[in-house]
Amino acid sequence: AQSVTQLGSHVSVSEGALVLLRCNYSSSVPPYLFWYVQYPNQGLQLLLKYTSAATLVKGINGFEAEFKKSETSFHLTKPSAHMSDAAEYFCAVRSTGANSKLTFGKGITLSVRP
Amino acid sequence: AAGVIQSPRHLIKEKRETATLKCYPIPRHDTVYWYQQGPGQDPQFLISFYEKMQSDKGSIPDRFSAQQFSDYHSELNMSSLELGDSALYFCASSPFFAGGNEQFFGPGTRLTVL
Q1: Does the beta-carbon distance from A32 to B100 stay under 8 Å?
Q2: The Cα angle at residue B93 between residues B17 and A2, in degrees rounded to 5
């Protein structure tokens, strides 16, 4: 079975500081990996995805993530946090089979201090 | 661009009542997924359909049933509602021949069981 682990439930950074949200996956085969963002009372929006092409993936809103097979990691980063980045972030994994379900991590709440 | 439509957006029911949630996928998307997100929880996969056939099943209670219709919209039927069914229910859609393509999420239906 595939799974993802997101360390910590809450991360707080100052505006302009580096954002680093950690995600480690467990999968017997190379997976597809995703980061989704959820703003309060809203749906899930895709930030970026890894689908076995480039290991460094750039997404929307200045976010990027690097797939590291040796570390089974897919950490999300942003060089400079903005107040509007405050939200819940979910890492998710799915198998490469068609119509495969997503398995989400527990999520990380990002707070941005002025 | 067209997005996934879910209705209703909010629903309040009493215990032991029934509820029907509807999902209209993005045009030309033939696969629909249902997820349940409890308060402060990560989304959990319930069930998915491809071409009107159930393609995968997750932790969906026996009290729940779902189907996909000829126009690809899907309905999640929930009976004998319990307090613990209060959650945000997401529908997502994707095209079948999508490889690592993402699932596009709707805004969700917030179900409150009193």
Answers
A1: yes
A2: 90
